[in-house]
Amino acid sequence: MSTARTENPVILGLSSQNGQLRGSVKPAGGPSGGGGGAQLQPTSQVKSSSTINNGSSQPMPTANTVIKPGDDWKKNLKLPPKDMRMKTSDVTATKGNEFEDYCLKRELLMGIFEMGWEKPSPIQEESIPIALSGRDILARAKNGTGKSGAYLIPLLERIDLKKDCIQALVIVPTRELALQVSQICIQVSKHMGGVKVMATTGGTNLRDDIMRLDETVHVVIATPGRILDLIKKGVAKVDQVQMIVLDEADKLLSQDFVQMMEEILSFLSKQRQILLYSATFPLSVQKFMGSHLQKPYEINLMEELTLKGVTQYYAYVTERQKVHCLNTLFSRLQINQSIIFCNSSQRVELLAKKISQLGYSCFYIHAKMRQEHRNRVFHDFRNGLCRNLVCTDLFTRGIDIQAVNVVINFDFPKLGETYLHRIGRSGRFGHLGLAINLITYDDRFNLKGIEEQLGTEIKPIPGSIDKSLYVAEYHSESGEELKL
Fold first, then answer.
1. Which helix (H) or strand (E) segment is 326 a member of?
2. Is 340 helix (H, G, I), strand (E, B) or coil?
3. Alpha-carbon dihedral sign for residues 88, 39, 252, 247
């Protein structure tokens, strides 16, 4: 089988014979960090991962737009359509707090509400007041429950616009996650009168980053290698950084990155605040915490590891039967958008070509692609231009596309941690999702081991899957929560 070309991912017409009906993908919800709402708007910096906000299509508010005391400011908000899908207790089991309870700047509140974030999720309730107090945080919460908002809201509240320096660093493990977090940060801060947000990652032009850092930047969202390079070159001056966030901390403190993280911290002030967020915390995180965090406030919202809204199934197949099984799933499931995981870049490209030959729309993405092509695929899939995405584990970390309601492990992972992050791409922010695993004879012990490790149940796939388990339209739009 020949390899599909990376440069030109093709969208084929969607056949009406299957659950993937012809037409655009139905948008769903907002980015992680809040309670649904608007999809992120495409930015003008798709080809480059280095972006400074307010230089795109959204004009900066002028001094005349300052909200005066007494104004009924909420009436002027441009709110997205209310997300009427049911939500699980992963995001609804709160103490009843409101965002206004945290005494946030009104301009920040405007951005929060215009993102469609109505009330803080449990991780946000626990995290925001502690982060505002300046204390270090070690937070463990499930994927897709609002961790991004939990740190971005206090981070933006503490930015001092009178200081023309980098005041906050957000470190993430992948380029795609850096772009996603920077877009959320830009949207939330758009009424704040000049917060400058920059994303910088490997695989992009270093000279462009150097030129941007010559201007005012308040918040830098970066991958470890690129920000360390800029710090060592003396371009990114981080001596006045007051807050550093490690998103997906377990990955950032793994063998691949931990030395770089130690070096980055050595350039920061000893008085900095450190916030660690992740769904899993292995020994490497505990060791780092003991060395660098000062009396951290520990948050653990992980009674169980898997999202309540994700129903998990497995199907026993031979390697030869996998594509046929996938075709059957496509014809029987009502897929809004799906993510299909393979264990290697080569298998991703081969499977993507096969899916296209079967007549389904398909993109693919993996780490060996050129960065501008990765950016384009990520951007287009997020905006609903394609229904299916085949990928490697590059796409498991923090990536939030709420229209995804089905995840398929075409190749079953070997590690429980990888499985947890993969299936967390569906069921985002308390919504419903489906995870289906194609299991070969060689995978059977891994399946049992991961079930035991995560304390979850992966059931044999039934002849017919109840659509109410993963299709939002099969529930009333009364806004009632799903009690799971």
1. helix 322-332
2. strand
3. negative
User: Is the pLDDT score of 481 beyond 70?
Assistant: no
Assign 3-class secondary structure to 11-56: CCCCCCCCCCCCCCCCCCCCCCCCCCCCCCCCCCCCCCCCEECCCC
How far is 156 from 195, CA to CA, in rounded Å?
A: 8
Q: How many Cα neighbours within 13 Å face the side chain of 128?
A: 26
- Phi first, then psi, for residue 363 (nearest 5°) are -110, 165
Q: How many CB atoms lie within 10 A of CB 449?
A: 13
Please give the domain boundaries of the chain with CATH numbers for all domains.
Answer: 51-79+94-300 (3.40.50.300), 310-474 (3.40.50.300)
In angstroms, rounded to a whole number, what is the distance separating the alpha carbons of residues 43 and 183? Answer: 8
| Cα 260 from chain centroid (whole Å) | 22
Q: Please calculate the CA angle 366-148-225 and round it to the nearest 5 degrees.
A: 50
* All residues at 6 or more sequence positions from 85 whose CB lies less than 8 Å from its CB, including other chains: 28, 29, 36, 431, 432, 472, 475, 477
Q: Are 309 and 430 in contact (CB under 8 A)?
A: yes
Give the Cα separation of 33 and 358 in Å (integer).
Answer: 37
d(CA 419, CA 459): 15
388 DSSP β-pair partners: 338
The torsion angles phi and psi of 123, rounded to 5 degrees, stand at -65, -35
Mean pLDDT of 92-104: 82
Length of the chain: 484
CA distances from 250 to 102, 146, 394, 444 (A): 29, 17, 15, 27
Which pLDDT tens digit goes with each residue over 123-162?
Answer: 899 999 999 999 999 988 766 678 889 999 999 999 999 9
What confidence tens digit (pLDDT) does each residue in 165-183 have? Answer: 999 999 999 888 898 899 9
Q: To the nearest whole number, what is the mean pLDDT of the chain?
A: 80
Residue 264 has pLDDT above 80, yes or no: yes
Average pLDDT over residues 171-197: 91
- Tens of pLDDT, residues 384-427: 889 999 999 876 665 667 678 899 999 999 988 889 888 877 76
Between 259 and 19, the higher pLDDT residue:
259
More confident residue, 90 or 13: 90
How far is residue 199's CA from residue 233's CA, in Å, rounded to a whole number? 17
Residues in Cβ contact with 479 at an 8 Å cutoff, skipping those fewer than 6 apart? 82, 84, 86
Instruction: Note whether 305 and 455 are within 8 A (CB).
Output: yes
